[in-house]
């Protein structure tokens, strides 16, 4: 979700996300044979943002533009870009950006086929306490009804809305999967049913 971030905290967010967490992920990818480069939304003005307007939550931003030049250059060199989601304002402000929202905006700007959101739940469940009620696929047209039924609620609301917005902006499908499961990405992409929830149009 969107969490209050004051001026002091946004500096910490920048140091932790763009520094420690980002470089740790890059290092782990390297240890497993990947070639990665860590960047953040401030690099080359990649993520341009403005203060969230409809609520006072400090230095939390809405993305107004994504410049994919840097990311495309990294991809052209066959590296994996690991992007920390802080964005820059027009007057030098630094904003904390929701990671799911940033991923969707970047995916749409790149014209990506798929967006995969890794979380700590199996996907969208009809009964949040029963993993056997996993819904494997959802058409965007079904989302309003699932919300009214209380199936989409709590922390799943922003994830589903992020997926819907990504699809409306050109991403072909979005997948919510459990990152705790070993090889989750491979199972979701290369098996017929997958292991999470796919959102499509």
Q: Give the uncertain stretches in residue-range form.
A: none
Which percent range fits the helix content?
25-40%
Describe the biggest sheet?
A: 4 strands, mixed
Number of H/I helices: 6
Characterize the overall form: globular
Q: Distance between termini? A: 24 Å
Average the pLDDT over all residues and give the rounded result.
93
User: Can you count the beta strands?
Assistant: 10
Structural class by helix and strand composition: alpha/beta
**Rg over C-alpha atoms, rounded to the nearest angstrom:** 17 Å
State the strand order across the main sheet: 7-9-10-8
Strand content: 15-25%
Order of helices and strands: HEEEHEEEHEEHHEHE
Protein described:
- Helix content is 35%, strand content 23%.
- The radius of gyration is 17 Å and the shape is globular.
- Helix 3 packs parallel to helix 5 (156-168).
- It is an alpha/beta fold and 201 residues long.
């Amino acid at each position: 979700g969107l969490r209050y971030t004051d001026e002091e905290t946004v500096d910490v967010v920048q140091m932790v996300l763009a520094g420690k967490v980002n470089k740790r992920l890059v290092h782990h990818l390297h240890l497993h044979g990947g070639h990665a480069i860590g960047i953040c939304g401030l690099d080359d003005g990649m993520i341009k943002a403005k203060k969230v307007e409809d609520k006072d939550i400090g230095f939390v931003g809405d993305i107004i533009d994504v410049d994919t030049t840097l990311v495309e250059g990294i991809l052209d060199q066959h590296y994996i870009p690991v992007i920390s989601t802080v964005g820059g304002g027009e007057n030098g402000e630094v904003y904390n950006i929701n990671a799911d929202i940033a991923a969707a905006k970047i995916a749409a700007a790149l014209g990506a086929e798929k967006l995969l959101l890794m979380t700590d739940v199996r996907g969208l469940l009809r009964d949040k306490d029963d993993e056997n009620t996993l819904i494997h696929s959802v058409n965007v047209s079904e989302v309003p009804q699932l919300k009214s039924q209380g199936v989409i609620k709590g922390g799943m609301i922003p994830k589903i809305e992020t997926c819907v917005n990504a699809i409306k902006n050109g991403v072909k499908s979005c997948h919510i999967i459990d990152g705790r499961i070993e090889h989750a990405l491979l199972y979701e992409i290369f098996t017929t049913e997958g292991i999470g929830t796919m959102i499509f149009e």
